[in-house]
Amino acid sequence: MQARKVLEQEFRVVTGRELTDMAVDVFGLGLDSLGILSLLGGLREAGYDVSLDDLLSAASMNEFVAMMANAE
């Protein structure tokens, strides 16, 4: 579950909040466009080859974490 920990850490860096509900999609996170881009940038810096399309197409953060794990 390395990918999940990285996502949680980057979400905390971008928002100052904990990512508590992995069942929501990106729109349920309450991020604005700059926050989404910052989150993706942090994930890329951490070594995950994920795109905006990946994030937007994921039905939940759980699904996005699975995509991240496959992109390691």
TrEMBL record:
Output the Pfam families linked to this UniProt entry.
PP-binding
The Carrier domain is annotated at 1-72
SUPFAM superfamilies assigned to the protein according to its UniProt record, in alphabetical order: ACP-like
InterPro entries to which the protein is assigned, alphabetical = ACP-like_sf, PP-bd_ACP
Query: Where does the record locate the signal sequence feature?
Result: none
> What name appears for this protein in its UniProt entry?
Phosphopantetheine-binding protein
According to its UniProt entry, this protein's organism is: Sphaerisporangium aureirubrum
